Amino acid sequence: ANASPTIRNLAEHNGMIIMVTSYDAYTAARLINQSIPIDFFMTKEGIIAFQEEDYIDDIREVMASKRHRDFPILSKEGKYLGMISRRNLLGARGKQVIMVDHNELGQALPGMEGAEILEIIDHHRLGTIQTLSPVYFRNQPLGCCSTIIYKIYQENNIPIDKTTAGLLMSAIISDTLLFRSPTCTPVDEEAARELAKIAGVEIEKYAMEMFSAASNLKQKTDKEIFYQDFKIFTAGKLRFGVSQITSLNEEELQGLSNRLLHYAKVALEKEKLNMTFVMLTNILSQDTLLLAVGSRAGELMNLAFSLETEKKNYELDGVSVEGYVARIPKLVSRKKQLIPPLSLYAEQM
Predict the structure, then answer these.
(1) CATH architecture classification, 222-346
(2) What integer pLDDT is reported at residue 62 of this predicted model?
(3) What's the pLDDT tens digit per position in 240-271?
């Protein structure tokens, strides 16, 4: 029979529990003795758990280094959602990615070897990328990859908002040096001017303000300056990196030459390269002071541009750097003017 309201009230008042069971009193008493609270067995600290947003690539190494067979998966609120085991990883797919503005693994993010590439949108030379299955590949000889993105918007009749238009326009201005670069095409300029209308800016004025802001390098470290536009290339048996810094201020570029020649050697060893080049490009005078570090780097510069480089020895913080320097008129494009001749002669070395 159910307990009366009076009994229930007394039990609640005294912190007691009323249990209704089909067992007799003796059996019930024995079972109660075996009913130990689960928190008696629980491990509350040092638990190795994963969030539902974690990537398989990130948790794989953790799981491999621990002796546990199963690991709990938690929500953002810390609620238990389920378990994952090593067996679940056997058929796991890699991250799905779209490569934009590059098509070489040497320029991609770490871990790309295990990723599933869905598309490649680019305007550079073709590299050595390999895919497991056919992908959508779009490569056009334009001055900026954002021009291709703009065309994709148009082809799919998708309106471009003001912010996106400003970003795409800025990229075209930067890549083509406001249509001064030899890589620039009429398609790039037309796209940039149409985007400027959407963004509501006067493109020439905006470009000068953008270049001036980008030229202010006083607050940046040598590492930040060097890596702000750095790419690695492979030609034959040689692997070399190229950093490009553009500015309106020739005095500032000259001041950077010794510092970046020093950091080029640091990057040479860090990235395990054969050679490292630095382009100090003056947007207004349309020329580049080219720095080089590495075995036979000076020889490669001489062959590629038919010139005599200046050998330079520089010491900073007790580190001696031997490099090569040459000013090359009309050289502003890494993609079209620097990489082709360097790659051509590098393959013969």
Answers:
(1) Roll (3.10)
(2) 87
(3) 999 999 988 888 888 899 899 999 999 999 99
Task: Give the predicted TM-score (pTM) of the model.
Answer: 0.65
Highest mean pLDDT among 30-34, 232-236, 240-244, 323-327: 240-244
Region(s) of the chain under CATH 3.10.310.20: 222-346
Q: What is the pLDDT of residue 171?
A: 97
Residue spans in the chain of domains classed CATH 3.10.580.10: 40-89
pLDDT tens digits for range 63-107: 888 888 889 999 988 898 999 988 887 777 778 899 999 998 888
Which homologous superfamily does the CATH classification assign to the domain defined by 40-89?
CBS-domain (3.10.580.10)
Share of the chain above pLDDT 90, in %: 53
Q: What is the pLDDT of residue 221?
A: 92
- Residue 141 tokens read as 């000889």
Q: How far apart are CA 222 and CA 261, in angstroms?
A: 10
Class of domain 144-213: alpha beta
3-state secondary structure the chain: CCCCHHHHHHHHHCCCCCCCCCCCHHHHHHHHHHCCCHHHCCCCCCCCCEECCCCHHHHHHHHHHCCCCEEEEECCCCCEEEEEEHHHHCCCCCCEEEEECCCCHHHCCCCHHHCEEEEEEECCCCCCCCCCCCCEEEECCCCCHHHHHHHHHHHCCCCCCHHHHHHHHHHHHHHHCCCCCCCCCHHHHHHHHHHHHHHCCCHHHHHHHHHHHHHCCCCCCHHHHHHCCEEEEEECCEEEEEEEEEECCHHHHHHHHHHHHHHHHHHHHHCCCCEEEEEEEECCCCEEEEEEECCCHHHHHHHHHCCCCEEEEEEECCEEEEEEEEEEECCCCHHHHHHHHHHHHHCCC
Distance CA(169)–CA(194), nearest Å, equals 9
